[in-house]
Structure formats: C-alpha cells, structure tokens
Design brief:
94 residues; 2 domains; rod-shaped
Length: 94
Amino acid sequence: MLSGRIQRKKVHRERKNIKQCVICGEFFEADRETAVCCSDHCRAIRKKLREQAKTPKRKTTNTQKLVEDAKKAREAGLTYGQWQARQYTERERT
C-alpha cells in the first residue's frame, strides 16, 4: 500500500490541467495553476500588451499655436511667459 503523500502525488500527476490561452485561444496543458498562456511567444505578447495598457498616452500640444504665440511675444518685446501672463490677465478682465 502507498503512503498518503505518494498517492496524492500520483493522483495529481494523472489529473490534466487543460486551459485556454488568453492570447491565441489554443488549448494547452498547464504546468501551473496560474498559467494563462500556452507558450513563451504568447507570454511575451501578453506582457507587451499589459505594459502598453499601463503607460499613459502623452498629450500632444498644438505646436503651431505655440510657435505663433512665441512670435507674437517677440514682436511685443516680451518673453513667452510674460506674454502668456498678459494674455491671461486680459482674458480674466473680460
């Protein structure tokens, strides 16, 4: 008769842990309970997708307006910051 520990190992080996890959949809036999991908290739794709989801998208600025504002500031003999401050105070007055 086998000991309880050896019997459990034998039963565990006989059980198949069949899962479906979250990337390609292929069914595979998982070595671990937490496995969600069938191969290294799918695991790499999943990692890349998760990293892309984490990184915030950069806001794009309207560079044309920035260049025009800088030009107007130079024409007025002001720095860009001074010119922006003046524009702000004019907007607040109205």
